[in-house]
């Protein structure tokens, strides 16, 4: 005997089961209906339960588009670096797995650096670092006026917000002219009639010469003839490759018969570590791949230190000063059997 269910409403308790020859009541058909409902529910029950992923945790300087609260298994997210940061290594893609966990990404975002600032003639500058959002404050010595921005900032593209300022000598306007008087401007020596009727001693005019200029270590001059030079004559200096000129490019024969202050050629520095990763000019290097192993006087690089309390890494800057590059005390050189993933440069940054 075959039958069908007519007038069935899932929310209603009343229904009629009609057979071909007999009419059954709900009470007589309850077991069959229960079996039918169980089969229908089985069709909509998933075979396996898949967990969803929450928001992925992002490392220092990382970003992603379209951040959601929940992701389904199989969803793919592409990581990127924020403005002011540069990608250094690793895959940018992570995937939500069926277990509700994200696959790991080795992408690292390092803070961008700006060029090292040149010294300010007749002034001073104060700064701690030259990475993104760092600032330099400029001041001039007494008798000089600052022309340009007193503070510049390292921008997200590795450029300074303004060109470095200059310090120009203070100048005075015209002095007040006394009544019935006049002002004479010159630099000549003058004699005068004293109260006793005598003239002051006349000035002595003599030929001013400077001795032949001398060489500088690790540098050269633009002249080759060793002779005496006259008043106001000049000589220019330069440095050999890898050395940096510290001081004026040009010296002058002064009225006293002496030369103005000579420059010096500053020595480059070697990075005195055997293992680990460094940050230089916005890029990271394993020290074994940093060739040639040297940076110029005045340049800055960073090594990575570990914050053991927070279990995160952070970069610490150090500057080359005339052949001396001091490695920060917080840096711990790993053993010769170190694991890359555990180094301060490879873990999450503080």
Can you offer a commentary on this structure?
It comes from Oncorhynchus mykiss (Rainbow trout). Binds to various kinds of negatively charged substances such as heparin, phospholipids, and dextran sulfate. May prevent activation of the intrinsic blood coagulation cascade by binding to phospholipids on the surface of damaged cells. Its main location: secreted. It is found in: Secreted. InterPro entries: Compl-Cell_Adhes-Reg, Sushi/SCR/CCP_sf, Sushi_2, Sushi_SCR_CCP_dom. The protein has 350 residues and is mainly β. The protein folds into 5 domains: 41 residues, no CATH class; 50 residues, Complement Module, domain 1, CATH 2.10.70; 47 residues, Ribbon (Complement Module, domain 1), CATH 2.10.70; 63 residues, Complement Module, domain 1 (Ribbon); 66 residues, Complement Module, domain 1. The chain contains 1 helix and 25 strands. It has a 5-stranded antiparallel sheet, with no helix packed on it. Strands 1-2-3 form a 3-stranded antiparallel sheet. Strands 4-5-7 form a 3-stranded antiparallel sheet, with no helix packed on it. The radius of gyration is 40 Å and the shape is elongated.
Short description:
With about 350 residues, the protein is mainly β. Helix content is about 5%, strand content about 30%.
Give the strand order, joined by hyphens, for the main sheet: 22-21-23-24-25
Shape: elongated
Number of helices: 1
**Into which percentage range does the β-strand content fall?**
25-35%
The profile of the biggest β sheet is: 5 strands, antiparallel
